[in-house]
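Let's do one together. I've listed all components of the complex below, 531 residues spread over two lines.
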Amino acid sequence: MMKRYKNLLLFSGILSPLIVGSSLLCRVDLMALVRGIPRATELIIRMFPPAWGTFPDLVRPALETVQIAFVGTAIGAFVSFLIGLMAAHNIHSRRLLRQTTRTLLSAERALPDLIVVLFFVAIVGLGPFPGVMALALGSIGMLGKLFADSIEEVDPKPLESMAAIGATKVQMIRYALLPQVIPALIAHTLYRFEVNIRMSVFLGVVGAGGIGYNLVTALRLLKYQEAMAVIITILILVTLCEKLSEISRKAIIGNELLK
Amino acid sequence: MAMNHPIETKIYKRWFESYLFPSSLFMLALIGSMIQLNMSPKLFWEGIPHFFSLVSEMIPPNWEVFSKGKILWSILETLAMAFLGTLIGCTGALLCGLLGANNLTPSKLIGETVKRALAAERSVPPLIYVLLLIVVIGLGPFAGMIVIALGTTGMLGKLFAEAIENVDPKPLESLESTGATKLQIIRYALLPQVIPSFIANTLYRFDINLRFALFLGVVGGGGIGVDLQMAMSLFRYADALAITMVTLAVIWSAERISDYFRKRVIGQEVLQ
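Okay, and this is what the predicted structure of the assembly comes out as:
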């Protein structure tokens, strides 16, 4: 009983100064919320009706957002597969290579995306290219690990029997490994695509292409009706991409020929 | 000849429909997108010398940036945003989880509404929230913190509700049969089962939020992100490296602490 309260006291003793400190740092201001209510209503009133006329101009950046996410995920997934093979213990027996790959992967995951994006923008300049590279690199950290784990979880028997009949490494991967891991790899990749779509919307803000930029500009220029049109476009885009990824997930996982 | 055999035709047709057609469609979309995004290999090759000149300009990092103290303050601000946002978000998520879980919800209607609201929250990209909140309550870390809290509630609320739905119902039933109140049932039969996964998920989300807090700075949500972006866009690369290194050190130590707590709290019997 005593121990219980001691722990509780210790816990709240650590937590409460942290809460107070961060509230001060965040400049938490409940009055700002109250004052925000009339502003929010005004904002909503000003946003309607959405400027439907701007939709034709939004198609190109919207498409660009999807393309950045798509290409970034595709490149990321391809590289992740190779890295997954390098990091899995049942594919090869070079311990050093495996550990180096795993360490690099976790280092990449620890790196915040914003830093990656800003560095790529500094290296290759503004535009969609740094966005694609940043998304690809960001995907590799997570997908590489998930792919490696999926590869390590396969049933070893098909691999062993292929090795016994003298198949090459490529043949083993194609006929014994891939059929077992494809559904998992696709599922992970599609999940990452959904993450990347959201990231891609954000990338426009740092100048890496896409529709995010349109939203920021519209709001900065106080063109609220245009901003509403952009918001609607973004919502449609995100929903469509999620539906698309769901459809392809079902189509590919149900596909027997890949097995 | 072989093509005309009915069985072979069928095999070819299946092969085409479920393998060749989708994969060529995929490749076509990929190559088309790369062309439209102007992704030429040339950009890549040109980037390599740029990369080296960037590195040479960054080193040595310019530690002078911290002399003003403002930068260090901004890093702490980022940390505070992530911490408070996660805390408020997970409190909201716990409420939503209790209200939304099928086995605990006061009424089917409320449960369904909560779940729908959480799903709607998750489907809206956070950029939209940040920009609108900045208009409503002004620039600064408060707006950023609220966005983090919202995103946290959206994700954790769903996970918590699922965790609550998957608990073993027997302890709940036996407490109910002894006439315990709803609050007592939650405290003594439900929480012990779900707390470990709650805390693990919350700390995991804290790691995500720390990174996201950096992004928020860029759009005016407070924190170090904006200083970092300014340094980069003004070509003050040595400053940028110094800021990056300290930010990474702070983020990584925060993660070590969160790891430590994850292990400690989960191992604790008091909460169970």
